[in-house]
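[Q] Does anyone have a clean structure-token version of this?
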Amino acid sequence: MVLTDINVIKRILSKHGFSFSKALGQNFLIDPEVCPKMADLGGAKDGTGVIEIGPGIGVLTVELAKRAEKVVTVELDTRLIPVLAETLSDYRNVEVINADVLKTDLFKLIEDNFNGKSVNVCANLPYYITSPILMYLLESRLPVESITVMVQKEAADRLCAKVGSRDSGAITVAVNYYAEPEVLFDVGRECFMPSPNVDSCVIKLNVRKEPPVKVENEEFFFSMVKAAFSQRRKTAANGISSGLGISKDKVSEALSASGLSPTVRAEALTMEELALLSDNLLKVR
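[A] Here you go.
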């Protein structure tokens, strides 16, 4: 069963009365080279476990199952469960869970299924929910080695940007705090059925054992970062002041104590400068 063959896909979906849901961002891969490459670069190999999110009809799942010792795949759409039962019937090392990954206890999932094995996440994420899923995975501090995902090309540029560069944003800072991101390869819109309006990119987040900076209060740090980037055309001071309700005088004081210009923009700040500013803001707020 070649799950990248358009005729095979249509036959299976027709058999199960399945139709694509725009609301769930469903686009199935039809390029036979993408998923094997994703599985290899995503760390699926003998003795390892893989968590997949949003398997669709199982095209990536099959490649993961060929390489890893066990694959647990989480699918939200109940309509796809019987489809996956058919497409994955030859693979005894795959478990399909019908659930919302954002409401799933992934620590328990890992404990119940992988028995101390090295675990990686590998997924073709729906575009509309890319950031919430990635932040849930990272903020949970799961015991995983890496997170390899296909995302919208524009999102990949932002997620993998260097902190302190023009393309960086609050999500860039958050991702770099928890992981070391890298771009793996691009995937054109023609590789999907139905074809989306944008190109895609596969990225890998190598999960850090420790953050690259130490901050006094992690929750405040991320609140400050979010506020600083909330008004991209304005200075970081304006964003922080309005976002956190701290007077501009105190924000200016913290900027000065951090050796930063009062007119600096958030995207110009490095991770180290953001951490120092956060700590200094805590002292004066």
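[Q] Thanks! Anything notable?
[A] The first strand starts at residue 28 and ends at 29.
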